[in-house]
Specification:
The chain has about 475 residues and is α/β, with parallel strands linked by helices. About 30% of the residues lie in helices and about 20% in strands. The N and C termini lie far apart (about 95 Å). The model is unreliable at about 1-10 and about 465-474 (pLDDT under 50).
Length: about 475
Amino acid sequence: MGEEIQRKRVWDPQPRQAQALSCPADELFFGGAKGGGKSDFLLGDYLADYEEWGEAWKGILFRRSYKELDEIIGRSKQVIGQIPGAHYTSGEAMLWKIPAPTAKYPGFATLRFRSLDSDLRVGEYNGHQYPWIGWDELTEFPGSGPYIFIIGCNRSAFGAPTRIRSTGNPGRPGHIWVKGRFIDVAEPFHIFKDPDTDLTRCFIPSRLEDNPILMKNDPKYEQKLMLFPPHLRKALRYGLWDVVVGQVFEEFSREKHTIAPTPLDASWYRFVALDWGYQKPFALQWWAVNTDGRMILYKQWYGCETGADNTGLKMSAGNVAAKAWEMSVNEGATTMVADPACWTKIGLSDQKGIEVPSVAETFENAGFTMVRANNDRINGLARVHELLQATTPDGHAMLLITRSCHHWLRTVPYLTSDPRNPEDIDTNLEDHDYDCTRYAVMSEYALDPRGLARRPVLQIPKRKKEYDPLREGL
């Protein structure tokens, strides 16, 4: 009984925090609105096992930058500092040692605080093992790379349970990948089992109402959150994941700008847009445009590794081109608007020093008529805005996305502006589908739609070589 009283005195979870503490998922994301008690949850979750496992209970808690650790370290001194014999070492160590004399492995449990301001620093933890790993404000990490790498450190040679626990708010740089990993895979509170790894993960939302202590001690805090503009209020007060802080395309609406897959008649001109990638994903988009300038993205192929964000398939241009041609030719979509970089040939040669075709030439050899895209980023962004905001006389949007284009809907609506140039997209984000769309809307087919009437709807594929019976072995 005495131990139970002492545990409550150190930290007593509120109902939603207690619910998260009981979740058995391997990975848990606890978050949403500001003021939901997220940081306290991380500390409480770590402490829940230290008395049983003692020296075997090793934890590490990450934040994006060193300065961002100040708040949670300060809170840890208020919570962990109450445990008799617990000692914190500041400076480079940033380490708690907590005595557990009655544990299975008597000794000191440890909790380290670390920053990962560069994704390249994950190599410093190669070979480390931590049964408990925490991520405070996981959405501050633009990509999932550090998180995925550190999962390999989540193990215990002593048989201690392994847990990965994270917190965060919507709308931050890592919004897209965190949403994809935790929010989109299952309903809140439901445990998702990854079919590839059998590891489980869960999202438990937290809102201001889940932190009655804060609401009681700071009754005006809610009023402060309500001062945000409407879209920020939705993200930070209510924890909604369909809005982003700094969202560029605020005018985008799934209700207004998306449609079910629909057959298109022959009056629509079809073409393909390409943003090439090898290490990063490539984006192929099939567009239809009518003589009024209305555009529909009716199909896409996004070359992203399954289960990984912003990671390419590493397919050769020849293989991609061949499959893209098969997906295009029967629809008459034989013209491709591509990133001008696809014509680059610098350094392209095989082991014998023979020059190899550029990406554009490879797609041209597959059958496409290749067109260099207009790569004007500023006017391209303005054009996307213009089409999203414009409507036809019958009230329909001028730019429509078919709901089967999941990757476009996963990434483009949540892009944020470049902090150094508010007139452009932050290129550190997963912007490949956006760039591909920019090429499409800046093409002559979109800017001069009335000229489409003079174009054949179904173009006849060109023969790229003469028949040579000797070469064919005849």
